[in-house]
Specification:
Order of helices and strands: HHEEEHEEHEHEHEHEEHEHHHH
Radius of gyration: 23 Å
Helix content: 25-40%
Shape: globular
Distance between the termini: 52 Å
């Protein structure tokens, strides 16, 4: 598999135009190097010998590269060589609607570089239909993409979903560098509080299960986690059960926090008594990484 495809897939980007859009000085480096934001990327079993910025290091997300027997390398861009952001290129967004039932084919979000339009569409994508009748799970999902060729109709239909509406409208898209620079800074963590990716979470479908947050699909981020063991019929059911349990983690954490708050309001506990409710509230807060 081409290095450009491995890099694009790792970051959930459209691989069709990746080579031409992000290749760094084609023909002038020994390795195929790609410039993305403030970083250079390359794929190979050994670190590239080309010096393009700071020293090469292995990227933290090696999952997809290792699947193809190689490694993903990253070199930070030297501070003095960071170029000024290029002006945003005019482009057309495509807003389209898909109709189907059962599990939403979440890997199409990466394949077509699309994202949900509204919060209701995010919820519809994440809907767990395992306990629902097929006719009760039929729904419409509204999506947007800036993919030049538009949504892939035949591949949507291979999952049992159909494109029922599509509209083009002009917009402006950011370059990768502008997008990375424009992201809001993460809030500073509260003292002694465990921080995690905000929910709700969802898992993809198919043989390669990934845990993503709903905004992560929009941003094209790497998954929160990947679930091993779903590669044959014997282990696939267990892998899917693990994925369903993990995606409920943020919701369970919120419910446990509410339970601890409720227990803390019991008169004996509120007065500082060492009763069973107080002990249970403390155990809950310890388990979710919070201090009373």
């Amino acid at each position: 598999m081409r290095g450009s495809t491995i890099i694009a897939t790792t970051f959930c980007m459209d691989s069709s135009g990746f080579e031409s859009d992000y290749r760094y000085h084609a023909g002038h480096t020994k390795a195929a190097i790609y410039s993305l934001g403030d970083d250079y990327f390359a794929v190979g079993k050994n670190a590239p010998k080309d010096v393009v910025g700071q020293p090469w290091e292995m990227h933290p997300d090696q999952w997809f590269a290792e699947k193809h027997g190689t490694k993903l390398w990253r070199a930070r861009m030297a501070v003095e060589e960071k170029p000024a952001p290029a002006p945003a290129a005019p482009a057309k967004k495509i807003r389209f609607t898909v109709s189907g039932f059962g599990a939403f084919p979440a890997d199409m979000l990466c394949y077509d570089s699309c994202y949900a339009v509204t919060a209701e569409d995010v919820a519809s994508i994440a809907l767990d239909t395992s306990e629902m009748r097929a006719k009760d799970s039929r729904r419409l999902v509204h999506l947007e993409t800036t993919k030049f060729s538009g949504p892939t109709e035949a591949r949507w239909e291979s999952f049992g979903w159909k494109i029922v509406d599509a509209a083009f409208f002009p917009s402006a898209i950011q370059t990768a560098g502008e997008y990375l620079d424009s992201r809001p800074a993460a809030p500073a963590p509260a003292p002694e509080q465990t921080q995690h990716t905000p929910g709700p979470w969802q898992h993809t479908r198919g043989d390669f299960l990934s845990i993503c947050d709903s905004d992560g699909v929009k941003r094209g981020c790497a998954p929160i986690a990947r679930i091993a063991g779903g590669y044959n019929a014997e282990t696939r059911a267990e892998a899917r059960a693990n994925a369903r349990l993990i995606v409920k983690a943020p919701e369970m954490r919120d419910l446990l926090r509410e339970a601890a708050d409720y227990l803390s309001c019991i008169p004996e506990t509120a007065a500082g008594g060492d009763d069973d409710a107080g002990k249970l509230a403390k155990r809950i807060r310890d388990a979710i990484g919070e201090k009373p």
